[in-house]
Design brief:
This protein is α/β, with parallel strands linked by helices and 799 residues long. The model has no long low-confidence stretch (mean pLDDT 95). Bound molecules: thiamine diphosphate (TPP) and magnesium ion (MG).
């Protein structure tokens, strides 16, 4: 525990942090002009309950190597602390929640003040700290970054946030993986957004965390209350508070000293010693005493944090008051509550702050500014440095693979990784794979056989030692490169997020690849979104996909994922049909996930390739006849840009078939069937609807801004297609994915795809049923590119 003067300084800073956060929110709502009539808000109450805990952490407990996920609504407190430490500007604070101002919820990518993890969607940041801790172990076990001390991964958790299931999924995974160096600090203010939470929840948490191997520290009463409990009659008081229901406690906190006195006198006022204990205090002192919970009491917090001298995962249940120190403290409706200008004025006066000096760092504090500044300058957390960008791991243009005459993209993926696993290259060493219990069924098995599973302690494969034949060797060791997860897809995405930020968090770059079944992207979509939002870098191989997974059953089909690929910011989506395409795309992906430039879009494809991002590969188990062809520089570039002509349209072209992914054979066959009856048909292979679309949008915008010659890859591809020509688009996914192609050059489009879910059957039956077989393509072509009847068109059978 720090000496007294240290504590005095921290108390002053706590006061300042509380004020600055309240003022930041007030400024955004009452001082700054807003034009759209929307309330800016800012969660004054929610942030106030963490003011003390965060003061203790950032000014005393944290070391430069520690990383913190801050509860979303404590963002004003975080920004205030950073401001005091010199990492945040008044401009940004004045712009809180405004355009380019400090963010409503701490953001790694949008905030200027060095946020560790983006939060906002409750539950995700919490689990991210757990996985970041596992990633730190992974990195160190591989011998990297050992010159730096181990950091603690810390989450500040709202008590209602713990309702989110993904937190529990991660606890289970953490237990399996031997979690260390992880602290979760629960802001137990017993309030959610709408309500006061159930009685006794802390006991469930305590049991649960202990069951999964965590230490649990319960911080209930502050130092004042603890001292009062030691006075004569104190035990009575303790019993009264212990028995006090959350609702009543909250109501009394809101009502203040006189109400406390009335209630205590009614309940235990005739019991001698305790009466004297109460009577000895004024209303204000009584209110201060009764609200002195440990989570809002610096000495208790500093002592509890200081006592941890081990690396076991630790959960602190800290009793706090929502709105602590503010007029609506404890009120059940305070979540979106804002202090009125009159209340703010009273707080200003109470804090001793002169009008016009609201942002002054030391205004209203009793200690000398020099002393406070000197203290701030020696704060350990301030010494942290951003890691220098790690040099990119070299990647070849294509990855080696032996292409068989007929194979699926999923098989190709497995073979490419198997080849990579044999290499003794930096690339192969930095790859880390993971999968939520679908390692084998997504063809990662051969890679795992060669590279092994990761665990801090070695575990042999008993089947191997017992000499029982098995296709897979399942050996765990600290050098293993595959992290085996349980089925929870949320865990996959949060782990990918943690692995994909290793270069920023650990200063060591990893090249993460996660595999899962394509439909289950939906299960982890919010976590995927947040991974991208915080600019984590990874490759997602989703397979099998669409209705082409036919024998897997209707329940596993994915329809909307190609649209997710287009719409999800921060991830480039590809859907190759052939394995040579996949080899080019994967090589591109390894380089792309390492890019850190912040350059503008390239004037060639109008994509921000130098900025980089993550990559989503939508793959298939459907075996497809491969094309034997040399991989030219032009073809490679076109595959990466998103499309190429598999059959170039002639000058009199009447129809173009544009396909994506595993329906390539149907598209090729349809072109063959139409060849005699329609002239100069073109066949466009679309490898990335996402990148084509993004390039087109960006080039259009560039033209609108005056760059008249800007042209996108898809615009150049369609430039010579006559305007009367129709385009039939087709994919095993939602037809809207390619329907926009008509808007590029004004061509008429008939988009084919899958719109309904769940019908099972063989591929042939399903393609016919949903209208994406060659016959459906021909029928569509006939309807939009009239001419003489197409001879090979069978009557379309809609099953
Ligand atoms: C996934 C998700 N669902 C809903 C919300 C909206 N929301 C924001 S805060 C909150 C309640 C938070 O309560 P708690 O975690 O106890 O924090 P406190 O407000 O008490 O500080 C809710 C429902 C959200 N941010 N994220
Ligand atoms: Mg709460």
């Amino acid at each position: 525990m720090p000496v007294n003067s240290h504590l005095t300084i921290l108390s002053e800073l706590e006061k300042k942090v509380l004020w600055l956060a309240a003022w930041t929110i007030h400024h955004a709502n009452h001082v700054r002009e807003t034009t759209d009539g929307l309330k800016v808000g800012g969660h004054q109450a929610s942030s106030a309950s963490l003011a003390t805990i965060m003061t203790a952490l950032y000014f005393h407990v944290l070391r430069p190597e520690d990383r913190v996920a801050v509860k979303p609504h404590a963002s004003p407190i975080y920004h205030a602390i950073q401001y005091l430490l010199g990492g945040q500007s008044v401009d940004k604070l004045e712009g809180f929640r405004g355009y380019k101002g400090a963010q409503s919820y701490p953001s790694r990518t949008k905030d200027a003040d060095d946020v560790d993890f983006s939060t906002g969607s409750v539950g995700l940041g919490v689990a991210q700290t757990l996985f970041s801790s596992l990633v730190q172990d992974y990195v160190r076990a591989h011998g990297w970054g050992l010159e730096r001390p181990e950091g603690r991964m810390i989450a500040l958790v709202g008590d209602a946030e713990l309702d989110e299931g993904n937190i529990f999924e991660s606890i289970l995974e953490g237990w399996k993986q031997g979690l260390r160096n992880c602290w979760w600090i629960i802001d137990y203010n017993r309030q959610s957004l709408d309500a006061v939470i159930r009685e006794g929840l802390w006991a469930r948490y305590e049991a649960l965390f202990r069951d999964f191997g965590w230490d649990v520290v319960i911080l209930k009463y502050g130092s004042l209350l603890e001292a009062a409990f030691r006075e004569p009659g104190g035990e009575h008081l303790r019993k009264w508070i212990d028995d006090c229901p959350n609702q009543l406690y909250s109501a009394l906190v809101f009502q203040g000293g006189a109400a406390w006195r009335r209630r205590l006198n009614d309940d235990i006022g005739d019991q001698g010693d305790v009466t004297r204990l109460i009577e000895a205090r004024s209303d204000a002192e009584l209110a201060r005493l009764m609200t002195n919970l440990a989570g809002n009491d610096l000495p208790s917090l500093l002592e509890a944090f200081g006592r941890i001298d081990h690396d076991r995962p630790t959960c602190f249940i800290c009793y706090t008051i929502k709105g602590y120190g503010l007029p609506f403290a404890g009120h059940k409706d305070n979540h979106a509550g804002l202090m009125t200008p009159a209340q703010m004025e009273s707080l200003r006066v109470a804090m001793g702050i002169r009008p016009g000096h609201e942002w002054d760092k030391f205004e209203g504090l009793s200690l000398a500014p020099d002393r406070l500044q000197a203290f701030l300058e020696q704060v350990a957390f301030r010494a942290r440095k951003r890691h220098r960008p790690a040099a990119p791991v070299p990647v070849p243009d294509e990855l080696a693979v032996t292409i068989q005459p007929v194979m699926s993209t999923q098989t190709g993926f497995g073979l490419i990784l198997n080849e990579l696993a044999r290499e003794n290259s930096e690339l192969a060493t930095r790859v880390v794979t993971t999968s939520p219990d679908v390692t084998v069924s997504t063809n990662l098995g051969p890679w795992v056989n060669r590279r092994g599973l990761f665990a801090r302690e070695a575990v042999a494969d008993t089947f191997k030692s017992e000499r029982i034949p098995s296709t897979f060797t399942w050996e765990f060791s600290p050098k293993g490169q595959h992290i085996e997860l349980g089925i929870a897809e949320m865990n996959l995405f949060i782990l990918l997020s943690a692995l994909g930020l290793s270069h920023a968090i650990n200063g060591e770059r990893l090249l993460p690849i996660g595999t899962l079944y394509d439909p289950f992207i939906a299960r982890g979509l919010d976590a995927l979104n947040y991974a991208c939002y915080q600019d984590a870098r990874f490759i997602l191989a989703a397979t099998p996909s669409g209705i082409s997974l036919a024998p897997e059953g209707g329940a596993h089909q994915s329809i909307g994922t190609p649209l997710i690929g287009i719409a999800q910011d921060g991830i480039a989506a590809f859907e190759p049909a052939f394995v040579d395409e996949l080899s080019v795309i994967l090589a591109f992906a390894f380089a792309y996930i390492q890019k850190e430039g912040d350059g503008d879009a390239s004037e060639r494809n109008w994509l921000r390739d130098e900025t980089g991002g993550s990559v989503y590969l939508r793959l298939s188990t459907r075996p497809v006849e491969q094309i034997k062809r040399p991989m030219t520089v032009e073809l490679r570039q076109a595959i990466i840009d998103g499309a190429y002509w598999l059959r170039r349209p002639g000058p009199n072209c009447q129809v173009v078939v544009a396909y994506t992914g595993t329906v390539a054979p149907e598209a090729i066959q349809a072109v063959g069937l139409m060849a005699e009856d329609r002239r100069d048909i073109g066949l466009l292979a679309v490898t990335s609807a996402d990148r084509l679309n993004a390039g087109w949008t960006a080039a259009s915008r560039a033209r609108e801004r005056g760059l008249v010659h800007a042209s996108a890859h898809i615009e150049r591809l369609l430039a010579d297609v006559p305007s009367h020509c129709g385009i039939v688009t087709v994919l095993d996914g939602h037809p809207a994915t390619l329907a926009w192609l008509g808007a590029v050059g004004g061509h008429r489009v008939r988009p084919l795809g899958v719109e309904h879910f769940g019908q099972t059957g063989e591929i042939r039956d399903l393609y016919r049923h949903y209208g994406i077989d060659s016959n459906a393509i021909v029928a569509a072509a006939q309807s939009i590119a009239p001419g003489r009847p197409i001879r090979h068109l069978r009557a379309v059978d809609l099953g």
